[in-house]
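Re: [ENG-882] Designed sequences occasionally contain unexpected residues at chain ends

Forwarding the minimal case from QA. Structure tokens:
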């Protein structure tokens, strides 16, 4: 149980390591529990402030898609800033890098992420993301199951260690998050704050038959993936259309040109 990440491989754009929890992560989480760890559950009908623009000491984040199982967030991390060293004990996470350069910290190593890279973080694995570039680091975070309050902060340079998720929103105009007509339990924000990217939900057959040259990523929204704890990410430049399931739904990220 000493190994935290899969053995390093030759760098390929769009692919990075899977971060697994080890005995070190277990010990750190056990310490937090002994110190009075508190974990909450998101109440979908009441915690509606989560649909606003959330203020962070390192920047800001906003929800761009949610259904009963998946939650997708857009993160803007300012230069020189970083998220806390934290874990999600009950949910799987994937971080997609859209712009900028990040140093991704686990308890074992610190690989560098650049545009089109992504990392799969298994539940319980502590991690932190640091912006080591000169511009805003733009990330998309996919989580399952949906629960924004599944958060344990072990270390934080802003003094938030041991604290729960933020409750403050920024007074900044962002596009509305709307229900999806053909998917009654889901809602989406079609663009982010800067309108540089557009977000959608498409069927696999639609992606295959109507190619979008501005497509960057497609993420499976399949229930099967929820059961297997496997968030499937397809990167457009290397995507094999034969890998998409025609009857499956996908969350899509594209350049908004």
């Amino acid at each position: 149980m000493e190994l935290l990440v899969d053995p390093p491989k030759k760098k390929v754009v769009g692919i990075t390591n899977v971060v697994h929890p080890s005995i070190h992560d277990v010990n750190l989480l056990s310490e937090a529990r002994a110190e009075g760890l508190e974990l909450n559950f998101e109440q979908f009908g009441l915690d509606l402030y989560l649909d606003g623009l959330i203020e962070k000491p390192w920047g800001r984040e906003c929800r761009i898609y949610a259904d009963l199982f998946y939650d997708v967030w857009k993160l803007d991390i300012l230069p020189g800033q970083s998220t806390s060293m934290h874990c999600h004990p009950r949910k799987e996470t994937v971080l997609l890098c859209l712009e900028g350069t990040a140093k991704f910290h686990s308890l074992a190593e610190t690989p560098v992420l650049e545009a089109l890279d992504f990392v799969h973080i298994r539940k319980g694995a502590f991690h932190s993301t640091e912006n080591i570039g000169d511009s805003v680091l733009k990330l998309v975070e996919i989580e399952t199951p949906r629960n924004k309050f599944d958060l344990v902060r072990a270390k934080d340079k802003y003094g938030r260690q041991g604290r729960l998720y933020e409750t403050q929103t920024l007074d900044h105009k962002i596009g509305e998050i709307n229900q999806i007509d053909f998917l009654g339990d889901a809602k989406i924000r079609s663009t982010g704050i800067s309108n540089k990217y557009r977000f959608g939900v498409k069927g696999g057959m639609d992606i295959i038959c109507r190619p979008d040259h501005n497509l960057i990523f497609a993420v499976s929204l399949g229930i099967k993936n929820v059961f297997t704890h496997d968030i499937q990410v397809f990167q457009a430049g290397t995507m094999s259309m034969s890998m998409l399931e025609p009857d499956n739904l996908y969350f899509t990220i594209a350049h908004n040109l």
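QA comment: On inspection the terminal residues look reasonable. The first strand starts at residue 18 and ends at 19. Proposing we downgrade this to a documentation issue.
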